[in-house]
Amino acid sequence: MKIFNKSRIAWTISALFLVAVTSCSKDEPAEQTPSAGKILFTGEQAGLSVKSALIGNSDFVADAGSTLKTTLQGNATYWNATSDRTGIYSPQANEAPLSGGTLGIINNEYIAKSTGAASDFTPVTAMYWSVAATDHHFYAYYPFLGGSSVAASVPVGLLSTQAQLIKNDFAHIGALDFLVATPVVVNSPDNISETGNAVHLVYNHLFTIVEFNIKGSGTINAIRLTGSNLALAGALINITQTPPAQGVAYPLANEGSKASAVIVNLATPATLTATATDTKVYMVIYPGYAGPCSIHFKNGGIWKNPVSKDAPSSPGFLRGQKYVVTVDAGAIL
Fold it and tell me: Which candidate, 58, 167, 202, 288, has a CA 20 to 30 Å from the CA of 99?
């Protein structure tokens, strides 16, 4: 999921992601064309609007209408053709047409066919209707991980150490994103040799993005945000669950471990100026933390000049939202 333009700085969760009778490989996926009961898919990202400029007494300003995903285009997030891949499940679908093969699809890989806010998805391995005029359930997540994890236990994580190429660049955000589609139930065609209408999936973001606007003097090569439960490792998520309320963190099937701090390293050190918007650093965090935060800056291998800020009050950082915080780093010597 990814095209982050500087003019498109918001994750609009408006959030994302079909098959010939012939077999397909990862290099040459089957086209999304009607054929022998093949199930077709389209996808988009669910949106989140936060109209208030400030959340309570927070120092973190919520971008109105902004959200998160691989590629940001204006105030919307875009799928990126060929590179964005999703995993799709269906207990009722078949691996071969006309009720052939094994019943039940686990983590079939589909690829975004076009770049944009919505896209058709082309299968690496297709799935087919199994029984006529019968409910088929569909579950999906992004990015595709491979393997055969059951839908109730899909691995999910968020790095506590992230990397940005240069100041003001947000190309790294897409690789940190994780999306879960709202479960869909579709009644199959009366004749399973037909394709029927495409199954439309709406993907929801799990995480939150923070943009730091930094003023001061001297240079920095990293920034660290400290609070509580800001990163995630070794967790599992049940993608068959109904999405939580807008902005609320998804419940996890296994909490794994969480880190209290997230670091973004800059491959090219940033020289600070008196204008905060000259230096922007982008970080992805796990949602839900409310309370005081500390921000540190690294120079010469040493963390310096701590700054205190207040995160949004309860329920804290909202899932799928982008925040902007302005920080005075002072003189970094």
Answer: 202
